[in-house]
Amino acid sequence: MSDRFAIAAGRIFDGEAWHENAALIVAEGLVEGIVERDAVPAGLTVAGGGAMLVPGFIDLQVNGGGGLMLNDKPDADTLDIICKAQMPFGTTAVLPTLITDTPEITRSTIAAGAEAAKRKMPGFLGLHLEGPHLSLSRKGAHDPKLIRPMDGDDEAALIAARATMPVLLTTVAPESVTAGQVKTLADAGVVVSLGHTDTSYRTAKQYAEAGASMATHLFNAMSQIGNREPGLAGAAVDIGTFSAGLIADGIHVDPATMQIALKAKNGPARIFLVTDAMATIGTDLKSFTLNGRTIKRENGRLTLEDGTLAGADLDMISAIRFMHETIGYDLGEAIRLASLYPAEAVGQEKRLGRLAKGYAANAVQLTDTLDVSGTWIDGKKVFSA
What we know:
26% helix, 10 helices, alpha/beta
C-alpha cells in the first residue's frame, strides 16, 4: 500500500466527535485529516469499509500475552509477542509490565525495553515495572520474598532506563520508597504510580506533591475508602493530579463502585482502562506460572491456588464493551477511557489517543457489535479479522 491512502468507515470517532460516512486520510504513518467519503482525493487507495473507525487503544498494564509472561523470558522477542497478542483486540500501544522479580530479571527487562525502543517495535510504548518496591501488606499476587525497599542503585537504574524508551512507568508503595526518591524519579521523567500499598490519604497526597501522578488498578491492592480514612482509593479519586487505571471486567471492581468513582473523580487527571492481562490473552491456556507459582484460569478469573486474584483474563475491547453495555457509558467516552485518557496519563496525548492531524495513524476498525475487524499502527495494518 502507498504511504498515502484512506481508511473509510460508516462512522469515524476522532477522539472528540463522530464523523458520518467518512474517511481517514493517512500519509507516511500520520493522520492527515478526516474527509467525507465522497471527498477522498482521486487516485488514493481506500481501505477499511467497516462500521466504525476509532483511535487505537492504549494499555499501560500488560503482564503477558500469546502464552508468555514477561517475567519468564524478559527479552525483546517476548516484548514483541506480548505487543502482537494485543493487536487483535485493538490495542496499538502497550506498556509490557514486569511483576515483582529479582534484580537480574529487572535488569534484563530494562535492556529488552531499550532494544525494543531502538527497533521501533510496533506497539511498544515503553515499560511498566510493577514492583519490587511495594508493601507486603498489600502484595496481592506478588512474591513476598522479592519485595524490597528502593535503594540508590534501583533509583539510578530507573533514571538511566527512562532515557532509552518513550515511557517508563513504575508502581511503588510509600512503605518502600521515600517521597524524595519519587521526586527524583519524576523530575527525570519517570511516571510514578502508587499501588500495592496501605498508605494513608495524607501520605498519598504528600507523594502526589512530590511527583507521583497515578494509582495502579484502582481499588485493588490498596487502602480503601473509609469513614475516617480515605486511603489511596480515596486519594486517587479526590486528588486532581492523580490518574488511575481501572480493570473493567466486573470481577476486580463491582460495577456500582466503578460508577461511583467515575462520577466522583476530580480532574484534570482521569480514570482510564487497563487490562492487567496475563499470558492467557490470545490463547486457550488453562494455567501458567508466575515466579514458580501456578495461576489457574477459570470462569473469567485468574487466581493463585489460595484464590488470590492474579492479573486479569481481559482484553481492551472487552473492557470497552463492558463500560458501554454494562455500565452504560456513552460509546465515545468508553473509547476515550482506552485511548485519550491513558495517553494523557503518560504524557503522550499530543501524538496518541486521537485521530487528528499530525497524530500517529493508530486506528481500530469495529463492527456494529464492537468486535475488532482491523488494526493499524503508524498507518500499517497489523491485524485483519
